[in-house]
Write a structure and sequence with these properties.
Blueprint (H helix, E strand, L loop, with lengths): L13 H38 L4 H12 L4 H16 L17 H14 L14 H40 L13
Length: 185
């Protein structure tokens, strides 16, 4: 093997190049295994979401919304998609001309606060002056979203638990009818 194999390896001997190559190879291989394990955990979470009736494309879109630097990109994309829907005479169910840029500041602040609350962002991340009308709207929407999310999640988890118990009982052939009566004591 020639010492000139690598791009910047002309000053290395073949053995030095091999040692350097193997060091990088082993580090990348180890990280690849970490990535495989993390991806398996991610796929498991996606399967659980799908089993709970969540549309995975909606999760992907939500992640894109949460991570995008310029939200105008998504707004413009949706406008173009609405125009294309018109080409095919698909029912829009809403006015095709979104007036998102004309939304009153208090309504926008409330919408942003609601998102921040559901996304479990820090309440101190309110981008508005807390004593201003938009700041109060943001905080109130954040508080409502947190309360709603907590209750909705509790209910969803209870439904999910009951469904899994019913499935486990059905798989075990137990319909619960022969269970002893509950003691009222």
């Amino acid at each position: 093997m020639s010492a000139k194999i690598g791009h910047n390896s002309s000053d290395l001997t073949a053995r030095q190049y091999r040692a350097l190559y193997m060091q990088h190879f082993n580090a990348i291989l180890a990280q690849t295994e970490v990535c495989k394990a993390e991806n398996a955990a991610r796929l498991k979470l996606r399967k659980e979401a799908k089993a709970d009736g969540i549309i995975l494309a909606d999760i992907d879109f939500g992640m894109r919304c949460a991570q995008i630097e310029d939200p105008q990109v998504i707004t413009d994309e949706k406008r173009r998609q609405l125009e294309i829907m018109k080409f095919f005479a698909l029912p829009l169910g809403t006015q095709g001309e979104f007036e998102l840029d004309r939304e009153p500041i208090v309504e926008r602040a409330a919408r942003e606060g609601e998102y921040a609350g559901y996304a479990a962002k820090d309440r101190d991340s309110n981008p508005y002056d807390v004593n201003s009308e938009p700041g109060r709207a943001w905080a109130a929407a954040w508080d409502d979203a947190q309360a709603n999310m907590l209750e909705d999640l509790r209910q969803a988890m209870e439904i999910r638990r009951a469904k899994r118990e019913a499935e486990a009982n059905a798989a075990a052939g137990d319909d619960g009818e022969n269970d002893p009566p509950e003691d009222d004591e």
